[in-house]
Write a structure and sequence with these properties.
Elements lengths: L1 H27 L1 E3 L9 E3 L6 E3 L3 E8 L7 E5 L30 H10 L2 E11 L2 E8 L3 E8 L1 H8 L14
Antiparallel strand pairs: 1-4, 2-3, 4-5, 5-8, 6-7, 7-8
Length: 173
Amino acid sequence: MTGKLLALILLFSALLAGVGMYYLQVYGFYYEVEPQPGHDVALLAQGSDTPEPIEYTAFQAIDADSSPIRYRACFETDLVPDQMVEFLPVENPEPLNAPGWFDCYDAVGLADALEAGQAKAFMGTKNIHYGVDRIVAVTQDGKGYVWHALNNCGEKAYDGTVVGETCPPKPEN
């Protein structure tokens, strides 16, 4: 009888831990970002160091303090990629997945649109966090998506290789 009770306690504990980890990964750490008009969606013009805000509506965003690359946002704009030639394009952008409950952001659909030429990605802000850039993509029908991605310095810093002289110094905690 004691063995069965211990087995049931272990199974229940494992199930509870699994449900808890799932909840924390998918829901627990995220929070909704309050819109800040003029700051939420900005693009880096070619040859500039300061991002320029663009007009947008229907802004929704989520973020988490647990990782600098958990930021995701959706918006609508009257601009189309062909009108945005003054902004710095991003080569080979890879949209990151968002939690399933954040249904305005579809990373697979966006990746397909980028590959098919139905959307174009631009640099939003370089080094929004150390080694992390904000990427903004706009589709032909005016839907916009924002995510954070590791840049070259971030990839080196987080995988443990030597960062090198081309990267800015890593900030102290």
